[in-house]
Design brief:
Layout: H1 4-16, H2 18-23, H3 27-39, H4 47-58, H5 62-74, H6 79-95, H7 99-110, H8 121-134, H9 138-149, H10 157-169
Length: 173
């Protein structure tokens, strides 16, 4: 296999070109491209099933993506890709009706404070909020969403964070 930097560059290029496959209704061709890249990785690599999962997911096949995300995680996928796999697998599980499983994964992930993947913490919260709505836990979902949004506001961060907390703790301020 070529060095990993070259592989990442070619993978990034493939993903940058995904819209062209949609325009031509050639999603299977895109998956084949990603499969070929994944085949270049060493046997047992957690990145290979992750990339395949992303390709299935991005072409509308959550049912095929979820087990591949699980395989990647079981093989020890790490860092940013690991967190992406948890978020994306949870979204796929939600799409195929396994919402409670997604909630468990995302709730556990909220407790994971990997600094290499912290940039995706809001994605974890947003995906969990969507799952919570699906199971009738709307107040908790809004609390998560407002709590994730609050630090990004130019003003009212403290107020919004307090409002988010009070949605689940009770209170009227």
């Amino acid at each position: 296999m070529n060095d990993m930097n070259d592989w990442n560059r070619r993978s990034d290029q493939a993903w940058a070109e995904i819209d062209g496959y949609y325009e031509r209704e050639a999603e299977a061709e895109f998956r084949e491209r990603i499969d070929a890249l994944a085949d270049e990785l060493p046997e047992g690599s957690p990145i290979a099933p992750f990339e395949r999962a992303c390709a299935w997911d991005s072409t509308g096949h959550s049912d095929k993506a979820a087990p591949l995300y699980r395989e990647a995680l079981d093989r020890g996928l790490a860092g940013m890709r690991r967190r992406r796999a948890v978020v994306q697998m949870s979204s796929s599980l939600r799409n195929i009706g396994r919402v409670e499983e997604a909630i468990e994964l995302l709730t556990a992930e909220r407790g994971n404070h990997d600094p290499d993947a912290a940039v995706l913490s809001d994605a974890v919260a947003a995906t969990l909020a969507l799952c919570l709505v699906d199971v009738g836990r709307g107040r908790e979902a809004v609390s998560l969403a407002v709590g994730a949004l609050a630090p990004h506001l130019p003003r009212y961060q403290r107020s919004m964070a307090n409002y988010a907390r009070m949605l689940v703790e009770g209170g009227s301020e």
